[in-house]
Design a protein that fits this description.
By secondary structure, the chain is an alpha+beta fold. The protein has 2 helices and 2 strands; from the N terminus they run αβαβ. The chain has a single domain (5-87), classed as Aspartate Aminotransferase, domain 1 (Alpha-Beta Complex), CATH 3.90.1150.10.
């Protein structure tokens, strides 16, 4: 990582793009300032559907649902590292 600073720069560039696109799509991404981006989807079933749809596109995420999420379920996800992951549309239905 010290010698390949482009990796760190690419991670944060992709993270910023992903966070912006999630916000543009109407997701609450919370106050996170790390490459793990929460995306609030509202209920357990919607979280599971979103995870399934993302897996179909090659993006792995784990849902956080009740009772682990006390107020609203979220899906934490690492900022994507491939351009393909930045161009996915995620319909929940």
């Amino acid at each position: 990582m010290v010698e390949e600073t482009w990796r760190h720069e690419a991670l944060w560039r992709n993270n910023d793009i992903m966070r912006e696109r999630l916000k543009d799509a109407g997701f609450d991404t919370g106050p996170s300032e790390t490459p793990i981006i929460p995306a609030v989807v509202g209920d357990d079933m919607a979280a599971f559907k979103m995870c399934s749809r993302m897996a179909e596109e090659g993006v792995f995420v784990n849902p956080v649902v009740s009772p682990a999420a006390t107020t609203v379920p979220i899906i934490p996800m690492a900022g994507p590292t491939s351009p393909m992951a930045l161009n996915i549309a995620w319909p929940l239905a």
